[in-house]
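Translate sequence into structure tokens.
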Amino acid sequence: MSELKELIEEYIELEEKLDEIEDDESEEFEEIAEKLHDMGHEIDHMVYNEEFTIVYNADTEDEEVIALIISDEDDDKEEFLIPVYTDEEEARKAIESFETESGEATFKCDKANGNAIVQAYAEDEEFLGLAINAPQCDFVIFAEEVHDCSDE
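Result follows.
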């Protein structure tokens, strides 16, 4: 299991634990919230440098990268996330899900660095960020959060 995947799973567990604490002024709440903040910053850095598997629709002329549209049908714009995968197994699970939804589409995979993916879509106002290991995992990192402090 990748280090990023493990860190995200730990982050999600802590987030769930934080949600269970009723007193948001308790010491336990504050400790978990601080740890989540630190872990989130570490995840931002890891995503910047991580090599992800991305999924393409091989049936389209331009082999379009799969995007997850998150806007309502009534919205004028279509905000989207790019799903990225921490390993081939996660990508395979996603492809199975995409094949079920799309019917006969053919998908293939490629590798790309997290920062390169974000930069490729940076000019698109409707691009929100990356969905890591979607749809199996509900972890989103917004494009503006992906950074490396050594670049600042």
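Note: Residues 18 and 29 are 6 Å apart (CA to CA).
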